[in-house]
From TrEMBL:
<dbReference type="GO" id="GO:0005886">
    <property type="term" value="C:plasma membrane"/>
</dbReference>
<keyword id="KW-1133">Transmembrane helix</keyword>
<feature type="transmembrane region" description="Helical">
    <location>
        <begin position="315"/>
        <end position="342"/>
    </location>
</feature>
<dbReference type="InterPro" id="IPR025857">
    <property type="entry name" value="MacB_PCD"/>
</dbReference>
<feature type="domain" description="ABC3 transporter permease C-terminal">
    <location>
        <begin position="275"/>
        <end position="393"/>
    </location>
</feature>
<dbReference type="Pfam" id="PF12704">
    <property type="entry name" value="MacB_PCD"/>
</dbReference>
<protein>
    <submittedName>
        <fullName>Uncharacterized protein</fullName>
    </submittedName>
</protein>
<feature type="domain" description="MacB-like periplasmic core">
    <location>
        <begin position="18"/>
        <end position="232"/>
    </location>
</feature>
<dbReference type="InterPro" id="IPR003838">
    <property type="entry name" value="ABC3_permease_C"/>
</dbReference>
<feature type="transmembrane region" description="Helical">
    <location>
        <begin position="362"/>
        <end position="384"/>
    </location>
</feature>
<keyword id="KW-0472">Membrane</keyword>
<dbReference type="InterPro" id="IPR051125">
    <property type="entry name" value="ABC-4/HrtB_transporter"/>
</dbReference>
<keyword id="KW-1003">Cell membrane</keyword>
<keyword id="KW-0812">Transmembrane</keyword>
<feature type="transmembrane region" description="Helical">
    <location>
        <begin position="272"/>
        <end position="294"/>
    </location>
</feature>
<dbReference type="Pfam" id="PF02687">
    <property type="entry name" value="FtsX"/>
</dbReference>
Length: 402
């Protein structure tokens, strides 16, 4: 009888304990890979998105709040700035592009942002990529324009297409009783960018400024200005001018460092999830040990017969470790199914909340070393039972009981 056949019969004989042990390893593998991949991909996606603009000029306030509001559309504005501030920074010799944005309205909870058409025609939202239209055209600027451009995800979720008509609601949260009188018509839908822009409905800047019900002062105000610099080092001069010398405005710069600092601050949450995953891994390794060790009392006679037929101690020892590795491999393989389910749910949730897309099919080294590590841990858990099998006394075990 060959070693693989002995292992197969042993696993089948102890099918229930084998399945339970493999399930615990699968859970540990899937959970660990999911935590690792969500952290790695979300950090990369947020950093790539934040680098589309070097800085954000806004009212005095938290730099993180300003970046989350103006670039990720996740926060409220700390206040408004004047159009004169926008014109001033736009004319600065170090500024390559300055895009004004105005917020404060929504459509069924999806944020409406007022801006200029140049954002979609002249500016790269990430290195080497400009916005593209899936359908229609960009809205026309002006206070009397009632045209809108829908991000791809917002259009899909709201069922908007070219020609659709909607009424903005005041505020960032959905409130049917706070609808404005103006009706806007969708003139275009953006192609997917996998950025927060996909979750936004864009209208002319003047549309937000002159919206009925807004304060009269809002006609000459903005929420923020997105700034691209001719050279990254130029941002230090603007930082000195607005942040160190001024007291009225904040120049959030550099945006990538602000987002990186944000992830560092919530790094404890990642560590807690990773700790939970590693505890599950240790429990899974322990279950391999307990499962095989518990079956040793019923196997001693089989092992003694095997030894009597000529099997060496090393062969018996290796067979037990190999059996543990097979359980580990079975669990690791099933772990990919759990990873797919968890990752799909996490990706959908992150896209819905932030617009940032993470991919279930993306490659990372953790997809190799985690399953291999689980197989190695399985082998480690099989060592103690293997030592016990190694020491089984042949003569005493095969001698008659009476």
């Amino acid at each position: 009888m060959t070693i693989p056949l002995i292992i197969y019969r042993s696993l089948r004989q102890h099918a229930l304990s084998t399945l339970v042990t493999a399930a615990s390893i699968a859970l540990a593998t899937g959970l660990l890979m999911t935590v690792w991949m969500v952290r790695a991909q979300s950090q990369r996606a947020f950093l790539e998105t934040s680098t589309s603009f070097d800085g954000v000029l806004a009212a005095r306030g938290s730099e993180l709040q300003i970046v989350l509001n103006a670039i990720f559309h996740m926060e409220s504005s700390p206040g408004n700035i004047s159009v004169a501030d926008y014109e001033r920074v736009k004319k600065h010799p170090a500024v390559k592009a300055a895009i004004p944005v105005a917020t404060g309205d929504n459509h069924k909870g999806w944020r409406i942002v007022g801006t200029v058409p140049e954002l979609f025609t002249d500016v790269e939202y990430t290195s080497g990529k400009k916005f593209a239209l899936a359908h229609g055209k960009v809205f026309s600027p002006g206070a009397h324009s009632r045209e809108a451009l829908a991000g791809s995800f917002a259009a899909a979720q709201l069922g908007l297409s070219v020609g659709s008509v909607f009424r903005p609601s005041h505020g960032l949260a959905h409130a049917p009783d706070r609808e404005h009188d103006e009706e806007y018509r969708i003139t275009g839908v953006l192609a997917p960018t996998n950025t927060p822009a996909d979750r936004v409905i864009w209208i002319p800047l003047e549309g937000v400024q002159h919206m009925a019900g807004h304060a009269e002062s809002s006609r000459s105000e903005l929420s923020a200005v997105l700034v691209q610099l001719r050279a990254p080092s130029a941002g230090f001069a603007l930082d000195q001018y607005y942040n160190k010398q001024g007291e009225r405005l904040t120049f959030a710069y550099p945006t990538s460092a602000i987002i990186a600092d944000f992830f560092n601050k919530i790094g404890w949450f990642d560590r807690v999830l990773a700790l939970v995953a590693f505890v599950v891994v240790l429990v899974a390794a322990g279950s391999v040990l307990a499962s095989i060790y518990a079956s040793m009392s019923t196997r001693q006679r089989d092992i003694a017969i095997l030894r009597a037929l000529g099997a060496r101690r090393g062969t018996v020892f290796g067979g037990m470790v190999l059996e543990a590795m097979v359980i580990g491999a079975l669990g690791a393989a099933c772990g990919f199914a759990i990873y797919f389910v968890l990752m799909t749910g996490a990706a959908e949730l992150i896209r819905e909340q932030t617009g940032v897309v993470i991919s279930v099919a993306a490659w990372h080294a953790v997809l190799v070393w985690c399953p291999l590590g689980m197989i190695a841990l399985g082998a480690l858990g099989g060592i103690i039972p293997a030592v016990k099998a190694y020491r089984v006394p042949v003569a005493e075990t095969l001698s008659p009981l009476s």
